[in-house]
Write a structure and sequence with these properties.
The complex is a heterodimer. By secondary structure, chain A is α/β, with parallel strands linked by helices. Chain A folds into 2 domains: about 260 residues, no CATH class; about 140 residues, abc type-2 transporter like fold. Chain A has 20 helices and 8 strands. The longest helix of chain A is centred in the middle third of the chain and has 35 residues. By secondary structure, chain B is α/β, with parallel strands linked by helices. Chain B has 9 helices and 10 strands. In chain B, the strands form 2 sheets. A 6-stranded mixed beta sheet of chain B has the order 6-7-8-3-9-10, with helices on both faces. A 4-stranded antiparallel beta sheet of chain B has the order 2-1-4-5, covered by helices on one side. Classes of the chains: A alpha/beta, B alpha/beta. The interface between A and B is large, with 37 and 48 residues.
């Protein structure tokens, strides 16, 4: 067994403790659990929402030309396919109201009736509804809701009721126009047909190719749903591996195991490389675990909500070579983070002081994560792009979107930059490992002596 | 007798502050050499320079003919350093720790034999398979001494080796040091404990404020100062300085 393998195995044994593995697994389970909750909320929105109509027989309209239009029937028709074993009466409840002495509706009574039926939205038909329509004057329909502390999609019932009123308007317009112009009602209502997703009358140029049937918004929302979690996951990995390495260094110093390690017959580069390789492996394993957990969550959140555009169909899909570049970019970002941490860890005096040293790394990983999540690389200003490029952790966060847009120059230049950055960081680390600072910490070097002066009188020794 | 260790006008500065002021000494092969001095005298700094942990500012240190500045890796092949209050990796068992260390020195059957020797020196019984973080201070020290001795170093460097140990543990560790010295291992150790050094060491060097103020066998030094023990020698020497 080589010395490097020996160090890597020891580091892995220290880093992958049952406690740390369990905490990561719990994190994955938490994301999956959250995904389940969010998925449940999404399913709730997708299922047919029951609602009530309080019409007291006022929703029946008899027009002067002898035609008849029923509000309830038209509302019922909008529920479309009722699931097997159910009837319209399970979704659309006809409720009666109690009128108070002042002529208004007793809303408390209505609310309790709605609560009894388990509905949170109702359409109330005023007394003059039919009369006004018959006279071809605009009528009103009142929307009435029960507010409940619901989940993230708690506003769904109000959307359903509002859209119900909108649809009723269209149906009634069709009925009225049909009565005037006959079978051409559809034409008069919509002389220019609105294009829906997938229509042959929509087209977008994507990456130099013309794609029919999709809008930029649909593509953008699909790209966002695919790439949104990447910056977050990378930020978490960077912060996690950074904390692991700096803590490990602090712990080695506190227990004086580092002094022993440095006097063993092995080269310092082997020690540095061993620590970095082990932490990078742990970072990738944890990163994968987070990625799986996050994907549970994101899939649950975005299913059926984002457009159903297949990115492969619009030329934005990634192939194996793209994924290899993405993985390379991620690995190098982790190595850069570890290089920075090893340098900072060299200055840590003990485990506690090491913990505080993760702050600069956290800030450096949070800046690109949030900028890229909210404005993206391509939406950032020139100055911000310069800052993002200089921070090595930005590159894997940018890479996925850049690969989708075939921006290989950006991805490859990022990889080259990170390779140089990592090499410099490792070289500095090895230099530090060969210096006194690893043993003495800050405050004992000639540089600090120049900066802070001699706090102890000359000649005093340890 | 061969020189195991030679220090020539060794100085160590931290910035503008000089911690060790040009000390010179030599330790013969198989000798137990004690560095005495109070806290801050420069003992640990000197031992760390010999162990290649700290760079010397000027002068030279040679370990079995290898220069610590130009051949640090060669030096590390023949030394074993035991820092004061050192610990081991808490998530490893005593056996796993010895196995980890042994793999840097040898492989195969020789490596297994080295671990067997380490376990024998540590003499921790069944507790060798317990995690290190469950060990008492005495058990930890025995494990670390075993770690330091099992590779059969030519020079063992031990900093405050019995510091904080109870009488029995300290006695047993001193016995281990005597045994390895009889087997040809050169030992340089630092201590506050003058009586321990007097009992154990063939020669001693006394340090004060980064200077080596005395050098000789315990008997020579006692005779020189007309003192009953090394403690008295040390007090008289420091007062004289």
């Amino acid at each position: 067994m080589t010395h490097l393998t020996n160090i890597v195995k020891k580091e892995l044994r220290e880093l992958l403790t049952p406690g740390s593995v369990v905490s990561v697994l719990l994190m994955v389970l938490l994301f999956a659990f959250l995904g389940g909750i969010v998925g449940g909320e999404v399913d709730k929105v997708k299922t047919l929402s029951p609602m009530a109509v309080v019409d007291d027989a006022n929703g029946e309209v008899d027009f002067p030309d002898g035609t008849h239009w029923s509000l309830y029937d038209n509302m019922a028709s909008m529920y479309g396919n009722i699931p097997e074993g159910k009837t319209i009466d399970d979704y659309l409840f006809r409720l009666s109201s109690v009128t108070l002495p002042d002529g208004s509706i007793d809303r408390k009574d209505l609310a309790s009736k709605m609560a009894e039926k388990g509905v949170t939205s109702a359409i109330l038909v005023p007394d003059d509804f039919s009369e006004r329509l018959a006279k071809k004057r605009q009528a009103h329909l009142e929307e009435f809701y029960l507010y409940e502390a619901e989940g993230m999609f708690g506003s769904a019932p109000s959307i359903t009721a509002s859209s119900m009123v909108g649809s009723l308007n269209t149906l009634l317009s069709g009925f009225l126009v049909g009565g005037v112009v006959g079978a051409d009602a559809a034409f008069y209502l919509q002389p220019i047909r609105l294009n829906e997703s997938g229509s042959a009358y929509i087209g977008t140029m994507v990456n130099g190719s013309f794609v029919r049937g999709v809008t930029p918004m649909e593509i953008s929302s699909q790209v966002s749903s695919q790439t949104m979690m990447v910056p977050l996951v990378i930020m978490i990995i960077i912060m996690m591996v950074g904390s692991i390495v700096i803590s490990s260094m602090g712990s080695e110093k506190e227990n004086k195991t580092l002094e022993t390690l440095l006097t063993l017959p092995i080269r310092r580069t082997v020690i540095v490389t061993g620590k970095i390789v082990a932490a990078a492996i742990v970072g990738l394993v944890y990163g994968l675990a987070y990625m799986v957990g996050m994907s549970f969550y994101m899939n649950a959140l975005t299913k059926e909500i984002v457009s159903g555009v297949n990115l492969d169909d619009v030329g934005l899909g990634l192939d194996l070579a793209d994924y290899a570049l993405l993985m390379t970019s991620m690995f190098l970002a982790i190595v850069c983070a570890l290089g920075i941490c090893m340098i900072m860890g060299a200055f840590a005096k003990n485990y506690k002081s090491a913990q505080t040293m993760t702050m600069p790394l956290s800030i450096l990983s949070m800046i690109p994560a949030f900028v890229i999540m909210f404005s993206g690389w391509y939406g950032a200003s020139g100055l911000m792009q310069g800052i993002l490029f200089a921070i090595p952790f930005s590159h894997p966060m940018i890479a996925m979107q850049a690969l989708m847009y075939n921006d290989y120059v950006l991805v490859l230049s990022g990889i080259a930059y990170m390779a140089v950055f990592a090499a410099v960081a490792i070289a500095v680390t090895v230099r530090l490992y060969n210096s006194d600072i690893l043993i003495t910490g800050l405050g004992q070097t000639s540089m600090s002596s120049k900066l802070f002066g001699n706090r102890r009188k000359s000649g005093e020794s340890r | 007798m061969t020189d195991a260790l030679v220090l020539k006008d060794v100085r160590k500065s931290y910035g503008n502050r000089e911690a060790v002021h040009g000390i010179s000494l030599d330790v013969k092969e198989g000798e137990i050499f004690g560095l005495l001095g109070h806290n801050g005298a420069g003992k640990t700094t000197t031992l760390r320079m010999i162990s290649t942990l700290l760079r010397i500012t000027s002068g030279s240190i040679s370990v079995y003919g290898h220069d610590v500045t130009t051949e640090p890796e060669k030096v590390r092949e023949v030394i074993s350093y035991l820092p004061e209050d050192a610990g081991a990796y808490k998530d490893l068992t005593g056996r796993a720790y010895l196995e980890f260390i042994s793999k840097f020195y040898t492989t195969g059957e020789a490596q297994k034999e080295m671990v067997r020797r380490g376990i024998e020196i540590a003499d921790l019984g069944d507790r060798i398979d317990s995690k290190v973080d469950t060990y008492s201070k005495g058990m930890m020290r025995r494990l670390l001494i075993a770690r330091a001795i099992m590779p059969s170093p030519r020079l063992a460097i031990m900093d405050e080796v019995t510091s904080g140990l109870d009488v029995i543990n300290a006695y047993e560790i001193r016995e281990i040091i005597r045994t390895i010295a009889r087997n040809g291992v050169t030992v340089i150790m630092s201590s506050h404990n003058m009586f321990e050094v007097e009992m154990l060491c063939d020669r001693v060097g006394m340090m004060d404020q980064g200077n080596l103020i005395l050098l000789g066998t315990p008997d020579e030094l006692k005779e020189k100062f007309g003192a009953k023990n090394l403690e008295e020698v040390f007090v008289k020497a420091v007062m004289k300085e």
